[in-house]
């Protein structure tokens, strides 16, 4: 395929949907997110029904375990990373690859920060005896938050691949939909976290 | 990559490589079809063994344990590994042709979907040779399966996890294809019914498979990694499995039956030689069935003890599904009514389908009545009901459509004479097998028992039922013979094989070239092939573009590698509870292979390739002789 050289003036308004492949990717990522929503809904429902359930005499409850300050910092990191990925898309619209790469890299850093705190949190729980196999509650908690964490890892690997692959060669109609799909996915992860923050941590601390 | 090279005779290795790497929807359709037939035969054989065991009371032909394995694998295989791929075969082969597309939206994912399904299926069947098959029924209720010894259930969980991912990927692919890849003029309300039902059934896959994935994951970690989702002593709850399973399991029935409805909605107007009656109400009914299909899962759990309110709500929702289904049945009848009917083999299956399926539907409404369901639950009445729906609805659709679409898929024909014989042997065998099982159920015979005591009034009906099963097996063998004989039939090499084709796929000159349409068609109305024929258009197609370069996707081996990675990882997970030292490394290596293949796919540009005008003309001349497609 011949590479068309664009300038900010000739760069199409919706570069992510300018080709047939791009349009397919755009619809495809939204359809995929629909199914991922159902996946999370199933895990959420299970978590709600197994919350605080464990072997007789279990001392762990949501109130004794969860601490809002840490969850708040994690939430802020992830929400901010969503914002920075919007900046990256803004620069994509203006055909500014440097801006795209810079803001996507910041998104990855914030995501890594979130992931680091999550790993610390998990480590802490396991350390005090609340391991994956400890109870139905622990299994459900780690599965719900861990599924989200896995999504974050996949998103980080994905965006890193895109940055490494495209930093040198600039934007074109082939990689614009890829950046766009990754940013949609990243927003989705962020929205899921908002629900986790509400259902697991806020509702957990309130009891 | 050149299309002209295809004309040279290729060696076995090259052909094999071509099929391992293909992203062509037509080839994948054929692969789905043959994989489906393979697993259909295996599961049918399992059913035959069970019926031989139940032919006479106190039989000891097979042991109780083996019977449990057979009944589990029969159900699981038929639904996940036979009916689904057979329908996917038709969807792949036909839907892009019906909407005027050159391929699906994501040809790479299409191939990935197939290989995930196929390797998942192989994985599950390895259980027979590696210490015993799953034995907790296709529903694999957690209270039973959690403590099932051996690795049977682990094979079930991991195999379904892999093949389920493949099905989900294919579902997403079909949705996007139908939304974005329609030819100019192919509006939503001009889409053939099979395309519509594919769209709705793919949407059901989209929402139904994630709960199954989650349920299977819980089972996986519970059995293999010490989690406690279903273990009540640790606070778990086995009912969670039942809900998740049926939130998937009930829509699964509609995932299978809606495409079957779609296939019959294609067959009936062609052979009644009348436009499909009530097209828009058919579309509406399809959407409504898809929607209601998600509101009824708990009717499988009336006896769990959810309370009268929940039972009543789910009972009424279930009965409501009979309304759109009834709309469809009346539309088919009114399409046939007053038509100039040609009773070909596909039409014969359609005519057999309507009463059989209605019988299955009516017993469904009976079971939806919650108080009556307490009586019918876990009896042979249930077995009779769902076999009437599945065999009477889905299997007849698949057999009929094999005859109907064989010319398009293979440029060969199946024998009509042998087809008629097959139909009658199979159809009579089917009713003989399952009709009497209604009464066995009402007389109190429980399902899933490996034998029964004599003189309870069940002996004769069981005997007749087994005779019917043997007839069905003979019917399937006849169909396979028909398929083998079709290799020797002369190629069709023309348009509109049945002479009364209505939708776009019949406008294509056979054999279908690998790019499907040399020019993208312009769809000028509903039933475009019929429309163009009525206007005397010999090409049966109007074009939306001049002859030009055609863009096609590249083949790739990566889907197979990704699937093999998961296949390897599954063995690691399977042996994890045995405490073997290599289990975790095997999981890591397997997943590593998959992830590396995914990263390769992401960073390696794949722009596809262009077939130039001269190559298109050369291909047309090679396929259709001098002067090309005229």
Walkthrough of the structure:
The complex is a heterodimer of chains A (207) and B (630). Chain A is mainly alpha-helical and 207 residues long. Chain A has a single domain (16-48, 69-206), classed as Four Helix Bundle (Hemerythrin (Met), subunit A), CATH 1.20.120.80. Chain A has helices at residues 20-50, 62-65, 68-93, 97-127, 136-166, 176-206. In chain A, helix 1 packs parallel to helix 6. The longest helix of chain A has 31 residues, at 20-50. The model of chain A has no long low-confidence stretch (mean pLDDT 93). Chain B is mainly α. Chain B has helices spanning 12-21, 25-53, 64-99, 107-126, 142-145, 152-180, 193-224, 239-272, 279-292, 308-336, 345-368, 370-376, 380-410, 416-442, 459-486, 528-534, 558-574, 583-603, 613-624; strands at 521-522, 542-543, 550-552, 609-611. In chain B, 65% of the residues lie in helices and 2% in strands. Chain B is globular. The chains are: A mainly alpha (207), B mainly alpha (630). The A-B interface holds A 1, 20, 23-24, 27-28, 31-32, 34-36, 38-39, 42-43, 46, 49-50, 53-55, 58, 132-140, 143, 157-158, 161-162, 164-165, 174, 178 and B 105-106, 168, 172-173, 175-176, 179-181, 206-207, 209-211, 213-215, 217-218, 221-222, 225-229, 231, 233-237, 240, 244, 247, 595, 599, 602-603, 605, 607-608.
């Amino acid at each position: 395929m011949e590479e068309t050289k664009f300038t900010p003036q000739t760069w199409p308004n919706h570069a992510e949907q300018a080709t047939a492949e791009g349009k397919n990717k755009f619809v495809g990522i939204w359809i995929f997110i629909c199914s991922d929503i159902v996946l999370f809904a199933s895990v959420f429902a299970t978590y709600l029904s197994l919350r605080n359930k464990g072997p007789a005499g279990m001392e762990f409850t949501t109130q004794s375990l969860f601490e809002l300050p840490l969850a708040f910092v994690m939430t802020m990191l992830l929400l901010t990373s969503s914002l920075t990925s919007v900046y990256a898309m803004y620069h994509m619209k203006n055909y500014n690859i440097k801006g795209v790469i810079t803001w996507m890299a910041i998104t990855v850093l914030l995501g890594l920060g979130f992931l680091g705190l999550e790993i610390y949190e998990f480590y802490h729980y396991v350390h005090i005896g609340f391991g994956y196999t400890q109870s139905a509650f622990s299994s459900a908690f780690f599965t719900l938050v861990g599924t989200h964490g896995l999504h974050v890892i996949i998103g980080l690997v994905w965006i890193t691949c895109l940055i490494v692959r495209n930093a040198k060669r600039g934007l074109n109609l082939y990689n614009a939909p890829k950046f766009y799909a990754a940013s949609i996915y990243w927003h989705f992860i962020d929205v899921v976290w908002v629900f986790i923050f509400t259902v697991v941590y806020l509702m957990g601390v309130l009891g | 990559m050149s299309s002209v090279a295809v004309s040279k005779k290729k060696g076995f290795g090259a052909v094999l490589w071509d099929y391992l790497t293909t992203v062509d929807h037509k080839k994948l359709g054929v692969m789905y079809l043959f994989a489906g037939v393979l697993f259909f035969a295996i599961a049918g054989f399992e059913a035959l063994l069970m019926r031989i065991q139940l032919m006479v009371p106190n039989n000891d032909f097979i042991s109780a344990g083996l019977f449990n394995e057979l009944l589990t694998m029969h159900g699981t295989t038929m639904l996940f590994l036979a009916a689904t791929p057979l329908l996917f075969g038709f969807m792949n082969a036909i839907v892009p042709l019906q909407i005027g597309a050159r391929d699906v939206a994501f040809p790479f994912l299409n191939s990935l979907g197939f290989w995930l399904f196929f390797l998942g299926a192989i994985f599950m069947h390895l259980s027979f040779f590696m210490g015993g098959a799953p034995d907790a029924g296709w529903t694999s209720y957690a209270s039973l399966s959690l403590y099932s010894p051996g690795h049977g259930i682990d094979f079930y969980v991991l195999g379904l996890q892999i093949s389920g991912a493949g099905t989900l990927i294919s579902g997403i692919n079909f949705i996007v294809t139908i939304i974005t890849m329609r030819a100019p003029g192919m509006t939503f309300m001009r889409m053939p019914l099979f395309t519509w039902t594919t769209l709705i059934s793919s949407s059901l896959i989209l929402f139904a498979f994630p709960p199954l994935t989650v349920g299977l994951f819980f089972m996986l970690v519970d059995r293999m990694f010490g989690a406690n989702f279903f273990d009540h002593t640790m606070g778990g709850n086995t009912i969670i499995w039942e809900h998740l399973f049926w939130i998937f399991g009930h829509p699964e029935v509609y995932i299978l039956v809606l495409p079957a409805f779609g296939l019959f909605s294609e067959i009936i107007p062609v052979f009644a030689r009348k436009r499909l009656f009530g097209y828009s109400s058919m579309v509406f009914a399809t959407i409504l069935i898809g929607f209601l299909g998600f509101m009824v899962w708990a009717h499988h759990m009336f006896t769990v003890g959810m309370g009268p309110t929940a039972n009543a709500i789910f009972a009424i929702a279930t009965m409501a599904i009979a309304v759109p289904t009834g709309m469809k049945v009346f539309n088919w009848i009114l399409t046939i009514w007053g038509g100039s009917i040609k009773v070909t083999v596909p039409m014969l299956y359609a005519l057999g389908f309507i009463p059989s399926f209605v019988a299955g539907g009516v017993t469904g409404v009976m079971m939806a009545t919650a108080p009556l369901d307490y009586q019918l639950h876990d009896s042979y009445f249930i077995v009779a009901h769902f076999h009437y729906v599945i065999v009477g609805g889905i299997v007849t659709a698949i057999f009929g459509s094999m005859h109907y679409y064989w010319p398009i898929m293979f440029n060969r024909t199946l024998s009509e004479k042998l087809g008629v014989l097959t139909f009658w042997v199979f159809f009579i065998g089917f009713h003989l097998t399952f009709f009497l099982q209604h009464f066995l159920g009402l007389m109190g015979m429980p399902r899933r028992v490996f034998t029964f005591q004599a003189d309870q009034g069940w002996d004769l009906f069981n005997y007749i039922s087994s005779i019917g099963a043997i007839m069905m097996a003979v019917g399937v063998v006849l169909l396979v013979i028909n398929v083998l004989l079709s290799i020797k039939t002369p190629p069709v090499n023309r348009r509109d094989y049945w002479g009364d084709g209505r939708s776009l796929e019949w406008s294509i000159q056979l054999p279908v070239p690998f790019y499907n349409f040399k020019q993208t068609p312009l769809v000028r109305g509903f039933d475009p092939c019929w429309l163009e024929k009525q206007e005397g258009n010999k090409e049966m197609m109007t074009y939306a573009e001049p002859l030009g370069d055609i863009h096609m996707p590249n083949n790739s081996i990566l889907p197979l590698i990704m699937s093999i990675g998961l296949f390897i990882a599954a063995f690691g997970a399977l042996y994890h509870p045995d405490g073997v030292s290599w289990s975790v490394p095997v999981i890591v290596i397997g997943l590593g292979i998959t992830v590396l293949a995914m990263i390769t796919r992401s960073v390696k540009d794949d722009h596809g390739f262009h077939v130039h005008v001269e190559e298109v003309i050369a291909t047309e001349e090679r396929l259709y002789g001098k002067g090309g497609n005229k």
